[in-house]
Amino acid sequence: MFSTFKALSLLGMVLLSASLDRDGEHVMDWKIDNLERIGGHRVTVLGQPQIITTDQGAALLFDGVDDAVIVPANPIAGARSFTVEVVFRPDSGGAPEQRFLHMQSAENRRLLIETRVRGNDWFLDTFLKFDESDRTLQAKEKLHPLGNWYHAALVYDGREMHHYVDGTREISGPVEFSPLGSGQTSIGCRLNQVFWFKGAIRQLRVTHAALPPEEFLGHFGK
Question: For residue 15, what is the DSSP state?
Answer without folding.
Answer: H
